[in-house]
Structures are given as structure tokens and as C-alpha cells.
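lol so apparently i was supposed to do this last week
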Amino acid sequence: MADTHFPDIPRVDAREKVCGAPIFATDDARPDLLHAALAVSPIPRGRVLTIDTRAAQASLGVRLVFTHDDLADLQLPGFLLGGYGFQNFQPLRSPDIAYRGQPIALVVADSFEAATEAAALIQATYVEDPFWPTINSPNVEIINQTDTPLGTILTEPVAGDADAAFATAPVKIDIELTCPTQHQNPIELVATVAEWKGNKLIVHEGTQNAEGVRHGLARVLGIPAAQVEVISPFVGGGFGQKNSYQMQTALAAAAARRAGAPVKLVVPRAQLFQDASFRPTSRHHVQIGADTSGKLLAAIHEVDAQTSRHDFFPGEYTATSSRLYGWGAFRGRERLVRTDTQTPGFMRAPFEHPACFAMETAIDELAYALGQDPVELRLANDTSVDAITKRPFTSRYAGACLRRGAERFGWRARNAEPQSMRDADGAHIGWGVALGAYPGMMISSIVKLAVTRDGSVEIATGAHEMGQGMRTVIAATTARKLGVTPGSVTVTIGDTRAAPQQLTAGSWGASSAVLAAEAAADAMREALAKLTTDGVVDGRSPFEILKAAGRDCLEVETMAKAPGQSAKVFDQIRSGMMSRAGPVFEDCVSFSFIAHFVEVRVEPRLRRIRVPRVVSVADCGRVISPRTAASQVRGGVVWGIGAALREASETDPRYGGFLNTDLAEYVIPVNADIGSIDVDFVDEPDSLLESGVKSLGEVSLCGVAPAIGNAVFHATGRRLRDLPIRIEHIL
Ligand code: MOS
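anyway here it is w/ dioxothiomolybdenum(VI) ion bound
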């Protein structure tokens, strides 16, 4: 089964989506809904001294106003690694202020407008403490990650003596690079509708982690998780921002309880910049040593990345940069810089995009130092064995991605000399290439599958649909194994009532869901076989088997274990704890790869950088749903263009917080910025799972930014090592 390609089926929810049928949490417009709004702190650190809510209370349509005096019984959710929250901090449980934009009061009113207006009438005074909002703040505290509690779960990759090998290498690159703070901006805002039925709390919220929200909420409210249900059938974009319990969920729940009515709390975009997670700033020191033939003798990658004062948000940058090539020796180091912000989070390819930017810029610089073609240099240093663990990769087609991409792009016609290629209008043309890598991880699942004689198949599992095509992948896999059409399969996900949910993130969604669906379908086939006289199910319709056996319906429940996980993992899933397997497995290591080839055009006078053409070839193992997979890659490339040329969240060190908190000032690529994006897949099965699937979503973004930066160097002769690259840097 693993060696035939999957057909290109349409998204199973395409029609519903196009018709606007899916109801997102923010779409809930029941007439009995009350609406909540938050008042926020203008200071970045200190505490609330006095707070005056009288004007807000007296404002038209206001039902309730809460401050920390009313919600002091809230508990802390714990940070995602070992807890449930995007941060281990809960606003409104005390007068303490940890970051600018932190909620200090909650208003509940008859309408969104009334609540928003009243929230603006809240007056507070503060005691201010000194604060350090960025990694460049003077006297900011920097700690080795190995000296934090993270040191017990995360190790720094080391192979051989990289410092000695670098010291004696005949050809060296030694550079510093930076990637800025960025914010995910899913179109669906972070929002909760909370409703009590007796002592049962029902939460509608777009989330990547319904079980985490459920258990986090139970912990913060101090109630049993059995009383909480979280429903999230569709997520309007997650990108890591919705990967855990959010600070507003308990506030909406507490408000609904006191108001005796359902409450909707939508966090406006400007508040999300301060009250949801973001990509931390990272500073990279990269040293690469090679011999004169271009053999990579050593690499050293040292990273300083931002965390908050109240959490240690991990740095896992070097886990990926160490896997790009067959280094002779490697040393990675991760340090954390404690800033006075909310806790950063896992924003799409959280570590891997910056890591690939740093390392793949350095590799391009090395190619120029050696006078070698950057594709040839990469191919010559490809490896099938992981340099760090010495274990084989589960599959590795990085070389095939580079070769096929070069062919599709027409790389052979490139003149390597910077500024050598010009368009008829005088624009500089630059061609750049870079490799991306992303870990192959997986999660276990508890799955229910039912087949009914009327021709319907229902599968319920732990996964979330945030537009990436999760339902389509599950339907395609289940249908294929059972010999039915994808359209006959109903997929229930993102619902804690249907099956235990787990975090959908880390690009483990498809491989984990396929693992789960295949296990459930195999169990169903076994159960169906028992209903037949000859034990044969192949070539027979499951519905006919049921009819022949006089059965209406057949149900199975399966526990699908990710490679190397123990049965304990199922208790973790039921308690909403994150439990990932990989990328290092017992005797192998799993990474996905992608090669991006980019053409940039630098306009002669304005120096505007355009990206007319990108060719991307991915090695994600077997492609289950060609259509949604190609969409993932195109989305990654668009995001990479944003990361390379547009996106940065700005901080004024005098005030803390973030300044450009809307989509007018936080600049992202628009349609006019996007040219042709040609996507192809190696589509060779991975060896780890029967399905042969590896990670895809996030690897798509990895390597886009350095390919663009390398192309800008080729076009202009200017080497730019700080993102984003803007007009002012190449004037
Ligand atoms: Mo993604 S950043 O792993 O939700």
C-alpha cells in the first residue's frame, strides 16, 4: 500500500467552507449572549495601586465589571511544557503587572460596543518597576538553557570537538545574524464563548489543543476537568498562537458563571499582540570551518533568544541547524534572555526558520569564499547519517530536492558573480538557494471508528482543523483502507466530547492522524472479518459485510501509539498534556527537508525588492493529500517572503510592549507581493510509518528567508544578516 501514490482529492470541507457554513467560535451570535471586553495596563512592569471602575459600572448596557479583587481565586495554568498555558501567568488574579497590555479589568455588557466603551472608562494608578523589554536592553539577564529546568529535557547538540576543528580549518565563516520579534496574525482572533449548564462548563474556542484548554481551564478555575467540554470544529488559523490554554478563557467562564448567561470574549488584534504568544527575537553567532575542497569540518551555532521573566520558553534552534549537513563536528548552544513581555511561543517553524536563516546564509557565504556553486557545495556535504546521534535518517531526500529544484528553476544559467544579472529596465536580478529542515515528530491517539450499513463511516480522533486539511487527510486515509469514498467519511475532531484531543502542532498533524486513522481502520477490518464466513474483507464493501451479517453498525476504539512511546502516553493524552515522539527515535532520526530557489528583482531607483519567482521542492515522505500539501508549501513560501522582507514587531524601550499592533502597521505580504510559486514533492515514502508520511507544514517556511537573502546578495553584492531586509538596507 505504501508504494502507490495518493490521488488528488478535493478538500472534504471545501464546499462547506466556500458556502460559509462552518461556525467559528467568534461567529456565535445567539441573542442571549453577553459580550466581554478587557481593560489593559499601559505600564510594562509593576502593580496596580488603585483602580476606579465607577464610570464603567455606570455606562449604558454594562452588567458586570471584574478586577483582581473579584478573581483572586484563579489559579495558574502552568506553562505548556508540563502545564497547559501559553504562559504560566493568569491576568486578574493579582494586582501584579508582568507586561504592557496585560488585562487589569473585565467588563461584561449587552453588546460588544457597550463592553468596549466601558472598558475604556476604567481608571487605574500603578507602582512602576524597572523593566527590560528587549534582548538588547542594558543589564538584561541572560541564562544558559542548560542551567534552567529545561536543561533536564533539552540537550545541546554536540558532535566531536567543533571548536578545535574550526580553529584549524583553512576556510572559515564567522558571522552574527538576527531574526526579529514577530507575531502570528491568524484571521480568526483568539476568542471564547463560555456557557454554563448547571455545573457543566461548555467552551467554544478556536484552538489547536482542545484538551489542553479543557484541563488548563479546570486548573485555573479549580474545578474537575470532567465538568468542562471544549468544542473547536474549525480554527481560523493557529500557527502556534492557539496551541494552549489562553488567558481569556477563564475570564469568559468566570463572567458567564456570575452573569448567569453565555459570555463571548473576543480579544481584539491590538490586545493579542500583548496577550498571546509571539516569535521571540533571536541572535545567532555562526562559525563554519571547511577545507579548501568545501568539505564541512565544523560548525558552531550559538543562539540567544528571548523568553519572559515568568517562563523559560525553550530555544531549540540548533536541534535543526545541526541536521542540515554531514558536519565533521558540531556544537550548539542555547541561551535565554529574560525580558518583561508575555511569554513568547511556538510561532510557525518557531526555531527552525531562524536556525535555517542563520545557517543557510552562512553556507552561501562559504560557497562564495570557496568560489563554489552553492547547490554543489550543499550536495557534496549531504549525508544519510545524522551527525549528532550517528543514527540514520528515516529518509532523507535533501539532495533530490536540490537537484530537482535546480532543474525546474533553470539554475544552470546562473552567473555566480554578484550584480552580474540585469533586466532590460536596469533592475538587478538575483538568484538564491537555501535548504530547510524541520523535525519529524508524532503523537499517539485514541480513536473511535464506526461503520453503519446505510453507507456512512464516522471517525472521531484527537486533531484540529485549522485550514491545513486535517479532515481531508483523515478521510482520505480511512477511506482508502476501508475501500470506501472519502465523501462517505465524517470526521469529528477538535471536540473533547468525541475523543481525547491532543495538541495539533509541530507539523505532526498529518503523520499522527494518518497513524491513528490507519490503526482504527485496521481494527475495523479485523472486526469486519469476524462477521464474514471466510474472513475476507479485501474487495468487499464494509456496508455489504454489515448487511450480510444482519448488523446495523460496527464500532471500534483503538489506541494508536507513536513509535517509541509507552502506554503511559494515553493517560497523558487524557489529561491534556503534550506528549511528542521524535525527532530522535530509538534507532533513527526523522527530519523533513525542502529546497527553495528564489529569484529577486531589485528595482534600479526605488531599490524595491520583488520576488517574482520561487521554486520549492519538498521531501515530506509520502504526500497523502496533494492539493492541501501544495497549499501548505505555498503558504510557507508566502510567510517566508514576509519573514525575509516585511514582518517585525517593534518595541519602544521607553514603554515596553509592542507598537505596531495591527495589520496596517505589522506589515505582511499581500497578493501584489507574490509572484509564481512552483511546488513539487519528492513523494518518496519515509521508513518510519506504514503510511510513509513525515512532517510538512512548517518545513515549507524553513529556508525561504535565507534563499531570499542569498538572492539579494547575488543581485546587489550586499550581504544582509538582519531580518527583515528592507529598502533602506540596500539603498
Ligand atoms: Mo505550530 S508553531 O507547531 O503550532
